Amino acid sequence: MSRFVAATCALALLLPAGTAEAFTIGSGLSNGCHEQISTEAFGRYLSELAPGNRRVRLGRRWRRFVRKVAEGMGHSEMNDTQAFVLTSLLVGVRSPDTHGHSISEIQSLRAIHADPNPMGQYAHSLRGVEDDYDEGNRAAVAGMRRTIREGVAAVLSAADDSAADQLGTAEIYFDFYGVVDVPVYLPAYHFGRVAHTVQDSFAHAIRDEASDLRQIVHVLNYVDAISDDYFERRDGVSHSDGMDSCTDDMRPRVEGATRATLELLEVLVTMHGDPDPAPLDAFLERWFTFRPGCYVPNDMCGNAHWLEVARDGPTGPYLFGRTRPEDDIYDGSRLPEED
User: Per-residue b/e over 130-150, b at no fewer than 16 CB within 10 Å?
Assistant: First the structure.
């Protein structure tokens, strides 16, 4: 697909008719890691769109708001409609991490991220409570796939709605104002939410260097890691602050997440014209397959560097520390009482 044709299709899919804790997020709508990845991928389409096409009418207050967001993300060239769509995308990509709360509101964020429902963990590309040993890796990757399929269905459903039904509201927190309902364009908002899951799979899983980071060899654990009943051998390597960053060390993963986000957008463009799920099936096979047999003793199948990064700043209980026994490593064996 040429970039010109792709841009035209993206306009039809993601701009209103007739009128993205995982990778770090910013405060308000500042330039966090998820926001950088989403804007870079999405901006490759938006920067090519003719500014006069299919505009929406925004009130003065929201026009100023979306213009400020676009300029803050390095896209001052966007028209008001494009800035509105970009803002909707960023509200969506942030939503799974905050649900409208402040990123400093620890009690609320803990409840979101410690959700015992496995689908709540899969939305962040993490293991569920019962996802143990290598079977847990498989279950988590299957959960990611299911979450992405549901997200894609939400985008396409919203894109097929009437012009009026494509506009909605979402909650977002602003310093000094609290939680505010902001207008959003729902196809872009839902795309932000599903893009969040895709991007988190680069921050919350060890991916295989030999496959250009396309295969997943291990899925990290948050919900068990913050408890006092966590065993790495059973529950997997814990969630890591070292992986949740846009530092130079994480650059290959950030670039991979950007490629995958852009590819997902291209899948949605194609499926909006033809509902055949084959492009989505191919996308999931390309980016969400599990390579078994990778453990700490074999450096996660030769991915020692990413294992080392995952060991940097491991998540633990909030109110007390934990010392992991030296023999409690993810090695494919069972706990003694489960042998």
Answer: ebbbbebbebbbebbbebbeb
Return d(Cα 272, Cα 191) in angstroms, integer: 13
Where residue 188 falls (left for φ over 0; alpha for ψ -120 to 50; beta otherwise) is: alpha
Q: Are strands 289-290 and 215-219 parallel, antiparallel or unpaired?
A: parallel
Which pTM was predicted? 0.84
Query: pLDDT tens string for the chain (339 positions)?
Result: 334 334 434 444 555 544 424 444 343 333 457 667 777 766 665 543 333 345 567 778 888 888 888 888 888 888 888 888 888 988 898 887 653 332 333 343 344 456 678 898 999 999 999 999 999 999 999 999 999 999 999 999 998 988 888 889 988 776 656 777 888 999 999 999 999 999 999 999 999 999 999 999 999 999 999 888 899 999 999 998 888 777 777 888 989 998 999 899 889 989 988 889 999 999 999 999 999 999 999 999 999 999 999 998 888 886 666 667 777 999 999 988 775
**Residue type, position 190, single letter:** H
